[in-house]
Amino acid sequence: MVKDRKWVIVLALTAALLSGCGEKPTETVYQHLEAAVELEAPFEEQQEPLQAAEVKENELFEDIIALGISDMEKITELADEALASIDSRLAMIETEKESIERSYAEFELIKPVQDEMEDEQLSSLLEELIVAMDNRYEHYQKLYEAYVTAAKEDEALFTMLKQEDLTMEELQAQIDGVNASYEVVAKEKEQFNQYTDEYNEKKRLFYETADLEVRFE
Q1: Residue 64 pLDDT > 70, yes or no?
Q2: pTM: predicted TM-score of the whole model, two decimal places
Q3: Higher pLDDT residue, 4 or 1?
Q4: Could you please report the per-residue DSSP string of 4-57?
Q5: Residue 173, domain extent
Q6: Residue 156 lies inside a defined structural domain of this protein
Q7: How many structural domains compose the chain?
Q8: Partners of 19 in the β-ladder
Q9: Is residue 182 part of a domain?
Q10: How far apart are the first and last CA of the chain?
Q11: Where is mean pLDDT largest: 66-80, 113-127, 166-180?
Q12: At 78, which CATH number?
């Protein structure tokens, strides 16, 4: 749905960070944060095929509408192709969700470390980072639910298009339902993006304060 951003490590941890006994909690946080990034790789990999499937389904819908009711056999063929695509999208969304949840579970391992951090500034930054990620995860769940609902509305639409006795009123009502569901998706996606940006900024500040140079992509 929404491609997240990655942190690319440019320089290794400073010698003090690696060897200093008092900095061990910071090193632990770093390791969990980077492991969480890797666990989101499947999430990122779903974005391009998801978008391609959505575009294809829109094209199939337009093709069906252009046919009118003149060729129900062709309409059924195109509708079935769209329904197969929606099934594929739903499977990709589940892969995406599993990736986000594994990443978040890894991220949560930093929470106990906050109590071990002696540096007050780093502890405060870590608290802000945790809040940002918690908000991001919460809104991903809302985005996931909205997207699945919208995909189910798409399924209902293409199933309906195979009905020979379909009326224009019924079709328009379902189209309105689809459009409304994707408006919710767009709203939740915007919120998720905002919290992702906030999380990335908090992470950047934490890394800078911990003397770790990074490049943000």
Answers
A1: yes
A2: 0.84
A3: 1
A4: ---EEE-SPPPHHHHH-GGGHHHHHHHHHHHHHHHHTHHHHHTHHHHHHHHHHH
A5: 7-216
A6: yes
A7: 1
A8: none
A9: yes
A10: 18
A11: 166-180
A12: 1.20.120.570
